[in-house]
TrEMBL record:
Domain named Enoyl reductase (ER): residues: 51-378
Organism: Oryctolagus cuniculus (Rabbit)
InterPro entries linked: ADH-like_N, ER, GroES-like_sf, NAD(P)-bd_dom_sf, Quin_OxRdtase/zeta-crystal_CS, SV-ATPase_mito-regulator
Protein's gene: VAT1L
Feature: compositional bias, Acidic residues: 397-407
SMART domains: PKS_ER (SM00829)
Protein name: Vesicle amine transport 1 like
Length: 419
């Protein structure tokens, strides 16, 4: 078994070398003037096309250099989010062209400053949002998306922070106006956003959190959520059994028929927020059937009904707010508040596991398998754990046909570093 592991590690190295001899893929930031083969290269995860796990490669790419207003960051850790699975599948609106380097957030050390950048110095420890390109050894991103991190915040924690905590904070406090004594329903309560929501709710007195999650997670997360239900349970009945009037806030990342269920659970003046469509992911590749089913099942809302029933319906997309709608200033204010809560030890990112860049496929498979509690992190300096026989995410060089790996969790033999 061990020998097979060594062979697989060598195979991965060869995969990198093979990629290094190819033309550089599109998608890096900077002027791209460095050619592959120069000393100025970096490693990055590249998505070669939309589809299954076999569309991911570790490649060498030209070293990016900061443009005016950008910071160059030597990356230590990157966040892996559910949206990255959807990007890989091409399961998002207006997907960008491939090849691309995935990833929307990272942490690391400032290595260079573009012209006109103020307030940062080389050597600063930072976390950042990146509009793609985060899963690389070096990243350039506009200064408006970069935040200094506290001394006692580790790089994995910092990479787990921006997307999940900012999303949770904006939904609870900017959109739904969470206050003392309210109640919140959150799906995927053991996941990255789910745990951030639970922690932020605990900063307000007397907030009741109803959560759904796979049952095996309940023991681990029971202290963060007031009432937990299995993800397949009839949660509408369960919530009404405990609180006949329903809840004040429904946070729905599933979509489909959960929209109607969520609306039916709202108390008068309650707020329903749609912020994801996890139900559309039913296998390793995009399923048009699941997409259509989810779309078809969404409750078609009549504003007159909302008026009569005193209900608020909202949507939230952090990436659109940041990268399309220019609200970086608002988000900086939110990050400041979140860092204050972190410094007061009221919130702390839950890191599920650390993975080397070479292990990105296994990391994504863990989310497909619903195995994570908290956030998965790509640790740029981690050495990959040798693969064992039967590994389910070995690179397929034979072709681009994807298999559906759903429910295939028994095969995985590479164990992550669990924090
Ligand atoms: N709108 C925004 O700005 C924004 C920002 C961040 C995240 N999101 C959304 O929030 C949701 C959670 O994101 P996250 O990054 O924190 O991920 P996450 O919750 O850690 O995602 C993994 C968990 O989701 C649950 N899940 C639900 N449907 C699933 C499916 N079809 N396949 C696999 N797992 C599924 C599983 O938990 P259980 O089995 O325990 O349910 C799984 O462990 C996603 O829908 C994401 O797109 C939205």
């Amino acid at each position: 078994m061990a020998k097979e592991g060594v062979e697989k590690a060598e195979e991965t190295e060869q995969m990198i070398e093979k990629e290094a001899n190819k033309e550089p893929a599109e998608g890096g930031c900077g002027d791209g003037s460095h050619r592959l083969g120069d000393a100025q290269e970096m490693r990055a995860v590249v998505l070669t096309g939309f589809g299954g796990l076999n569309k991911l490669r570790l490649s060498r790419k030209p070293m990016p250099e900061p443009q005016d207003g950008e910071l160059k960051i030597r990356v230590k850790a990157c966040g892996l989010n559910f949206i990255d699975l959807m990007v890989r599948q091409g399961n998002i609106d207006n997907p960008p062209k491939t090849p691309l380097v995935p990833g929307f957030e990272c942490s690391g050390i400032v290595e260079a400053l573009g012209d006109s950048v103020k307030g940062y110095e080389i050597g600063d420890r930072v976390m950042a949002f990146v509009n793609y390109n985060a899963w690389a050894e070096v990243v350039c991103t506009p200064v408006e998306f970069v935040y200094k991190i506290p001394e006692d915040m580790s790089f994995p924690e910092a990479a787990a922070f921006p997307v999940h905590f900012v999303t949770a904070y904006v939904m609870l406090f900017e959109v739904a106006n969470l206050r003392e004594g309210m109640s919140v329903l959150v799906h995927s309560a053991g996941g990255g956003v789910g745990q951030a929501v639970a922690q932020l709710c605990s900063t307000i007195p007397n907030v009741t959190v109803f959560g759904t999650a796979s049952t095996f997670k309940h023991e681990a997360i029971k202290d963060s959520v007031t009432h937990l239900f299995d993800r397949n349970a009839d949660y509408v009945q369960e919530v009404k059994r405990i609180s006949s009037e329903g809840v004040d806030i429904v946070l729905d990342c599933l979509c489909g028929d959960n929209t109607g269920k969520g609306l039916s659970l709202l108390k008068p003046l309650g707020t329903y927020i749609l912020y994801g469509s996890s139900n559309m992911v039913t296998g390793e590749t995009k399923s048009f059937f699941s997409f259509a089913k989810s779309w078809w099942q969404v409750e078609k809302v009549n504003p007159i009904k909302l008026y009569e029933e005193n209900k608020v319906i909202a949507g939230f997309s952090l990436l659109n707010l940041l990268f399309k709608q220019g609200r970086a200033g608002l988000i900086r204010g939110v990050v400041d508040k979140l860092l204050a809560l972190y410094n007061q030890k009221k919130i702390k990112p839950v890191v599920d596991s650390l993975w080397a860049l070479e292990e990105v496929k296994e990391a994504m498979q863990r989310i497909h398998d619903r195995g994570n509690i908290g956030k998965l992190i790509l640790d740029v300096e981690k050495t990959p754990t040798p693969l064992m026989a039967n590994d389910s995410t070995e690179t397929s060089e034979a072709g681009e046909e994807e298999e559906d790996h759903e429910g295939d969790s028994e095969n995985k033999e590479r164990t992550p570093f669990i924090q």
